[in-house]
Amino acid sequence: MSNFGEILKEIGEFGLFQKRLLAALCIPSIFVAFDVFGQVFTGMSFDHNCNTDWILERGPNLTEDRQRNLTLPVNKDGKYESCKMFTPVDLDLETIEAYGINTTTGCLDGWDYQAPIGASSTVTEFNLVCDKSGLIEASQSIYMAGCLVGALTYGSISDRFGRRFALLLSLLVLMTFGVGVAFSPNIYVFLVLRFFSGTSGVIIMNTSVLALEWTIPSNAAICTQLIIVVYSTGLMTLSGIAYLIPNWRILQLVLSCPVLLLLGFLYWFLPESARWLMTQGRKEEAQKVLERAAKVNGRKVPDDLMDKLTIEGKVKRRNMLDLFRIPYLRKRTIIMGYNWFATSLLYYGLSLNVGGFGLNIYLTQVIFGFVEIPANLGCLVLVQHFGRRICHACFLFFGGVACLVILAIPNDLPVVVTIMAVLGKMAATTAFSTAYIYTAELYPTVLRHNGVGVNSMCSRVGGIVSPLIWLLEVYHHSIPMLVYGIVPVAAGGFCLLLPETLNVALQDQAEIK
Description:
Elements: H1 4-11, H2 16-37, H3 39-42, E1 48-50, H4 64-71, E2 84-86, H5 93-99, E3 104-106, E4 111-113, H6 122-126, H7 134-161, H8 163-181, H9 187-198, H10 203-212, H11 217-244, H12 248-256, H13 259-269, H14 274-279, H15 283-296, H16 303-307, H17 322-325, H18 327-351, H19 361-386, H20 388-406, H21 414-442, H22 445-469, H23 479-495
Antiparallel strand pairs: 1-4, 2-3
Helix pairs in contact: 2-10, 2-11, 7-8, 7-9, 7-22, 8-9, 8-10, 8-12, 8-13, 10-11, 11-19, 11-21, 18-21, 18-22, 18-23, 19-20, 19-21, 20-21, 20-23, 21-22
């Protein structure tokens, strides 16, 4: 865009206006973390057995241990079966104690959960165990399907109606359906509401694009990384809130209701992207926003400089199909689409299985959230020094290798497994952070949000598939980690086919090459 860089220099490339805007854009990241990973705690599993209170009619004074001994079969590990019970019989207690019961059946009268007093989850309330246990992974995949739709939809909405409108709309959807989830009467309503809540999971995409367009290329990585660092803070905060609020419905309300205050604040405060306004030919609106920014930064834009503010070439409205019509954009979209898929597969494959690494779920979640902070800050230094392409490729490669190394670690070393999983999570985190920076810089302004949206859509496909891959564990315990390892290693190789964007001026109009 002709002279837009000069205008940014005049109003302040990273003055008080940009700093205030960045601080405001960081806040939604906290609630995105709550929404994406809240299900780790609202859907927490507890040890359970079949309800066998039928035998209390024969012996009302039976102790709990004696009741289990008489009514629950034992598995090969010496533990009571979770989904089987001895078939109820019409015999007196003395006969049952003397001869036992030889036939088993599934749970006929529900389940008893060994949950702490006052604790509840969707698992205990909707009985998502035994033949319904797959609905837990399904709910995570359905949420990611919502994210996929959101990535596709909000990219077009943002490029058509503006960055501000798209961000406010996504926050409204997050709050509305997040609160609605807390009042779900059954698992099926819960799944529908989680799907629509998931459509707002692209908020970080919205905030990072808006932040990027209000600064110069050298500050783009800093803006994106700070937004993602706050997301990591949200992950740690989530663990503490969930520990204090064991009831899943109350927890869901506490995580969702504060979005209303944020929505009101951003409606009053948030400016539109002047760069986007110019690409739409709305010069007068862009001028007002730029003058506001200059005033906050204590600068004044010379009248002649504002008068010369023009758009490169003729304004032409673009749409998502142009990402595939234009050859160089098609190549970037296909490669980065696969890379986003691989990154998401790795990230969610490790993150959503925090209870499967052998340590306390709250502690593991805090660790997973904490390691993202140094990972993102370290990533910022690396991408600014070595460039986006090589760093993104290396992060994907190391994340995949970490998963493959986990396969070689014995199951009786949970601490070592967790350490490797944390290293893999760090690599996945840095790969995600780099992807947000790199992808936004690969596309012109007229198609930037569409481009990021399509790639984010591919990421959500990875998020949908990721929980389901754990179901392959029934065939062999090594299959999930093998998939999580090979896919990102291949993506790292494809990344090397893309151009470098470090310190390259943002392109505004799509060029036919």
